Amino acid sequence: MQDQIRVDVLVVGAGPAGCTVALNLAPFYKVLVVTHQKPTTKAVGESLPAAASRLMQDMGLWSSFLNEEHQPHRLSKSHWGSSEAHFNDSIRNLDGHGWHLDRHRFDEWMLQQARVRGAGFLKCSALNDINFQSYREMWSVEIEVDGRRVQINANWLVDATGRKSFVAKRLGYSPKTMDKLACGWMIGKLSESAEQESEIYAESEGWWYTSVLPKQQRLLAFYTDADLTSAKDAHCHIALLKRAQQLSGLAQTLGQTSFTKSDLKHGFCAANSATLPQYAGHRWLAVGDAAMSFDPLSSQGIFNSLYTGLAASTFVFEELKRNQPRYQVNEYNNALVEIWNTYTNNQSSWYTDQKRWPQSPFWLRRQKGGVF
Description:
alpha+beta, 2 domains, eight-stranded mixed β-sheet, globular
């Protein structure tokens, strides 16, 4: 016996993008969010730019977000185009300061906001089948929940599955990977309180990022290309720390952090830019990293999840309230194409500013541009 559920909108994925879609549509339509039971890859070093305050206000989340008391991000320091330090102070930003997020707590908060507004949630062990029934103008999605098959019928389907773009791939749209950027990261324990600033250091085979995290922790992350020999260091926490200490400024910052085995967390993950060939089709859309994933240097990952989630929910809301829906998804597609073009132009500018290692494969690839 197969259980059946009928909804207006089915969102696959419960990260910030998926929850943004759900919380904006749930007060008006029947929304179900399906997420996988297996834990996702740990998100580290997440920050939210000050401009996100506008999105929070538009969605009616501003007061609640402030009550979460995430750490302010007021100052960033970079050693990028030269060995000299350059500072970016939030006092010059009309939107104020950004935030260092406790990512787990932020995700839980977003999920709770969607629940409060009426969205339903299901944890599934498998997503078996996705097909569009043209005679009913409806999506039919089969999942497994606690050993039972459940069929979900939905007017609209939203892919919020992150970099995997699981739904889009099942529909025949695979993301185009633009580069081979990967990240080796480690988290240590601070011996005393530290400045709430983030720091970026360029080096011959990539770049470094470090910032203070909640619970007296510090993140250290090294970004390089997965096919370069430097990636071996990124896989090993001992080699990673040794490499970091070769940069005097970074070594000084890390002096108050313990990376002993009892305190250490370490991992390796993809950090490349990627984009779908199209972001929407007949009664479906992709949001957040499922649509396009950004280089962490942009600090725009979560902001883009919120922005595209809000844009998608606005589009779907307008379509559902029409007696005769237009299904003109080109409006949504074009909006995301513009976002992607702006991002790639900015990314090219960031990397071409760095000219200290013209023969380094990492930097040479980015000077030439294109896909690699």
